[in-house]
Write a structure and sequence with these properties.
With about 500 residues, this protein is mainly beta. About 10% of the residues lie in helices and about 40% in strands. It is built from 7 helices and 27 strands. It has a 7-stranded antiparallel beta sheet. α6 runs antiparallel to α7.
């Protein structure tokens, strides 16, 4: 048997170069059948095999294949084509557009739409359907991995967590480095409240802070960035303009780039469309930090404070509790979207409603958002086009405290010999471990999320009207009028017995 296997291995070793030699490099180009323009991003795969290639901006592709293989070429908005590899090493493939496919457009300043080849600067466009398929509650997170040079960071994994977005790195040490957001031609605010912008004594906007924004913004409370108010299902497309291009169109306020969002309008086929979709998701932690349980509380092998960790070595019989794993819960999120639309080639209207309810993995953490939007468009005598839209968003964010004195740091420090879930006495008072003074030790993480918490409520109203007058083919006059207004009312509460307070008086 061993001799047989050795011979088979020798045969395979000899024949392998022959098989490898049969595989050759195939090049080709994918074009639009109608106008001969290259198809960028088309997928080229070998039927029945894994792997493949993508076409570049000129429609070119390179792939390794054997004679007789079948190449399948697909692209969004085109009918798939297949070719059989023969003796030739270069192929030209023409793809036919599918019926009803809209040609890609780029939205620039003043909500002006142009074809990609009509602009002289580099842009990247993300379809609204791609953002919706990502199932992200904050549409900014839906852009992650879809735009080159785009960095997105979420402040935490809690429900309603804010996200920051940076295009091609930081360009200022003191000012806001986030790009400008423009929705339907109107500049929209994406600020987040900074608790320490007024030298630690009051509230203000992050970009008005005189300190390092990344160090101080939302240190203990996350107020969510305001682009989280946007319903992802209302988005038709997102165009990303980077530094110089954005500055040329919008001025210095767009020195860090611009994110241009175009929202959906009503249909034009004269029919009534009703769309409802929902999504349900659960979230759970899968990795936890390793916490030492070898040593009992103390210092230099001497028993002592419960929140120091180099006392005597613990015996094998000492009971231990996995407070870290037991603390976190399974998060749940549900989203419901309803849209009604109708119209013809002269007028169209679309109304949408969205409801989001997100429960986080941290106890007592919940984010809810209700969004209503109406968009209308009408053309008068093929000369004047008016496109008004109104959006109303109401959101609430229940959140525990974070940072120094928050639940996470205390959870890491809490001794494993104590069951952290047992944090109240039968009389409902705070249980202490080391000090008789409840203000003299750390807050139990369960106590923290139960009694030290906050809430903010945001009401946002935005509206815009785009008026375009085109009396001749060579003259167009466009005006955009818009308003964006929101108010956030928030409160924070610390229990009178919280260790965060130096005086047991509470704070509200």
């Amino acid at each position: 048997m061993r001799k047989f296997l050795s011979r088979m291995a020798l045969v395979l070793f000899v024949l392998f170069p022959l098989f490898a030699a049969a595989q050759s490099t195939i090049t080709g180009r994918v074009l639009n059948e109608k106008d001969g323009t290259p198809v960028d991003g088309a997928s080229v795969v070998i039927k029945g095999k894994t792997g493949g290639a993508k076409t570049d901006a000129n429609g070119n592709f390179t792939i390794a294949a054997n004679k007789g293989d079948v190449l399948i070429i697909t692209s969004v908005g085109y009918t798939a084509e297949s070719i059989k590899v023969k003796d030739a090493s270069n192929y030209v493939v023409s793809l036919q557009k599918t019926d009803g496919t809209l040609e890609e457009v780029i939205v620039t300043a003043m909500d002006i739409r142009k074809k990609p080849r009509e602009v002289s600067f580099a842009t990247q466009t993300v379809k609204g359907s791609d953002i919706q398929e990502s199932q992200r509650d904050n549409f900014i997170n839906g852009l992650d991995g879809r735009v080159a040079g785009l960095t997105i960071n979420s402040t935490s994994g809690m429900a309603g967590a804010s996200s920051s977005i940076v295009l091609r790195g930081f360009n200022s040490m003191a000012l806001d480095n986030q790009p400008l957001f423009v929705i339907d031609g109107v500049v929209m605010d994406n600020s987040s409240i900074n608790e320490t912008s007024n030298t630690g004594t009051g509230l203000g906007l992050v970009e008005n802070s005189t300190r390092n924004v990344n160090q101080t913004a939302n240190r203990s409370t996350d107020y969510t960035n305001r682009m989280a108010d946007i319903n992802p299902n209302d988005i038709e497309s997102v165009t990303v303009l980077k530094g110089p291009e954005a500055t040329a169109l919008y001025g210095s306020q767009a020195s860090s780039g611009a994110i241009i969002v175009t929202t959906r309008r009503g249909r034009k086929d004269g029919k009534i469309g009703i769309t409802y979709d929902n999504s349900f998701r659960i979230s759970a932690l899968t990795r936890f930090p390793e916490i030492s349980d070898k040593w009992s509380p103390g210092t230099n092998t001497v028993p002592g404070n419960l929140f120091s960790y180099f006392g005597p070595e613990q015996s094998a019989s000492t009971p231990k509790y996995d407070n870290m794993k037991n603390f976190f819960q399974t998060g749940f999120s549900q989203t419901h979207n309803l849209a009604v639309e109708t119209g013809n080639d002269k007028s169209s209207i679309r109304g949408s409603a969205s409801f989001l309810d997100q429960t986080g993995i941290v106890p007592n953490n919940n984010f809810r958002r209700v969004s209503l939007k109406v968009a209308y468009k009408t053309t008068i005598k093929d000369i004047i086009t008016i496109s008004p839209n109104v959006t109303l968003t109401y959101s609430t964010n229940d959140k525990p405290k974070r940072g120094a004195g928050g639940y996470m740091l205390n959870l890491l420090i809490w001794p494993r010999t104590n069951d952290a879930s047992n944090f109240l006495s039968p009389e409902g008072k705070k249980l202490t471990l080391y000090s008789s003074d409840p203000n003299g030790e750390l807050d139990n993480p369960y106590f923290n999320v139960e009694f030290n918490k906050g809430q903010d409520v945001t009401l946002r109203k935005s509206a815009s009207t785009n008026v375009t007058i085109k009396p001749t083919k060579w003259f167009t006059l466009t005006g955009i009028f818009g308003i964006d207004n929101y108010s956030t009312n928030g409160w924070s509460f610390y229990h009178p017995l919280s260790a965060i307070l130096s005086k047991g008086t509470g704070a509200h």
